[in-house]
Design goal:
By secondary structure, the chain is mainly alpha-helical. The protein is built from three helices and no strands. Helices cover 88% and strands 0% of the residues. α1 runs antiparallel to α2.
Length: 115
């Protein structure tokens, strides 16, 4: 799970460079001096590319948040299970160390016969 989170963070970082390149090309194309603003195939493709990269990054961020929340839930469950295990181990220790000696001295056969 932790490797998956690190991989998603790396993928998000790797998308920053292509996004900057596409945005820079788009801005450069829009602000060309002495050229009319034209909406040709290249312009549409650059806009589409910026949109696609943005959507991909947003999906990665959403999955990253979900993975981080799932990891936190797993860690909380682990802590809870470790606490329960410690309580049970302590109960077994108390039973063996303190109660077993007392139980051995009681006459169980006579108490069982009564019931």
């Amino acid at each position: 799970m932790e490797k998956n989170i690190e991989l998603m963070k790396k993928c998000i970082q790797e998308k920053e460079a292509p996004m900057q390149v596409a945005q820079t090309r788009l801005v450069t194309r829009v602000r060309r001096p002495n050229v009319e603003a034209c909406r040709d195939v290249v312009q549409h493709r650059l806009v589409e590319e910026v949109y696609e990269i943005g959507e991909t990054v947003e999906q990665l961020r959403t999955k990253l948040r979900e993975s981080e929340m799932a990891l936190q839930r797993l860690l909380r469950a682990k802590v809870s299970l470790e606490h329960d295990l410690a309580v049970k181990n302590n109960s077994i220790l108390v039973d063996r160390e303190k109660c077993l000696g007392t139980r051995k001295t009681l006459p169980w056969s006579s108490m069982v016969a009564v019931y």
